[in-house]
Amino acid sequence: MSEISRDEVKHLANLARLALTDEELDQFAEQIDGIIENVSKVRSVDAAGVEPMSHPHSIETVMREDRIGTMLTPEQALDQAPAQAQQRFKVPQILNEGDE
């Protein structure tokens, strides 16, 4: 049983502004059906009691404690800058927007 019709593939191709031949429409409809079938198989797996993970390995992220430390003053940070303006690094404009 087909999950996606050739007309639906044609509609998607039109939305994506793709010009597909009749053979390509048939081929993509078949491929998309295969993808949908594989996703359906994954959905049928009993995952009760399985904790969701963001990574396939059990890793523990170690975070350091935040500590306030000494920082550079604006003058120190800009000391070696080739150009500066308003206590900031001045770089060449790359977009034609606004003033320098």
TrEMBL record:
<dbReference type="GO" id="GO:0050566">
    <property type="term" value="F:asparaginyl-tRNA synthase (glutamine-hydrolyzing) activity"/>
</dbReference>
<dbReference type="GO" id="GO:0006412">
    <property type="term" value="P:translation"/>
</dbReference>
<comment type="function">
    <text>Allows the formation of correctly charged Asn-tRNA(Asn) or Gln-tRNA(Gln) through the transamidation of misacylated Asp-tRNA(Asn) or Glu-tRNA(Gln) in organisms which lack either or both of asparaginyl-tRNA or glutaminyl-tRNA synthetases. The reaction takes place in the presence of glutamine and ATP through an activated phospho-Asp-tRNA(Asn) or phospho-Glu-tRNA(Gln).</text>
</comment>
<keyword id="KW-0547">Nucleotide-binding</keyword>
<keyword id="KW-0436">Ligase</keyword>
<feature type="region of interest" description="Disordered">
    <location>
        <begin position="80"/>
        <end position="100"/>
    </location>
</feature>
<protein>
    <recommendedName>
        <fullName>Aspartyl/glutamyl-tRNA(Asn/Gln) amidotransferase subunit C</fullName>
        <ecNumber>6.3.5.-</ecNumber>
    </recommendedName>
</protein>
<keyword id="KW-0808">Transferase</keyword>
<dbReference type="InterPro" id="IPR036113">
    <property type="entry name" value="Asp/Glu-ADT_sf_sub_c"/>
</dbReference>
<dbReference type="GO" id="GO:0070681">
    <property type="term" value="P:glutaminyl-tRNAGln biosynthesis via transamidation"/>
</dbReference>
<dbReference type="Pfam" id="PF02686">
    <property type="entry name" value="GatC"/>
</dbReference>
<dbReference type="GO" id="GO:0005524">
    <property type="term" value="F:ATP binding"/>
</dbReference>
<dbReference type="GO" id="GO:0006450">
    <property type="term" value="P:regulation of translational fidelity"/>
</dbReference>
<dbReference type="GO" id="GO:0016740">
    <property type="term" value="F:transferase activity"/>
</dbReference>
<keyword id="KW-0648">Protein biosynthesis</keyword>
<dbReference type="GO" id="GO:0050567">
    <property type="term" value="F:glutaminyl-tRNA synthase (glutamine-hydrolyzing) activity"/>
</dbReference>
<comment type="similarity">
    <text>Belongs to the GatC family.</text>
</comment>
<comment type="subunit">
    <text>Heterotrimer of A, B and C subunits.</text>
</comment>
<dbReference type="InterPro" id="IPR003837">
    <property type="entry name" value="GatC"/>
</dbReference>
<keyword id="KW-0067">ATP-binding</keyword>
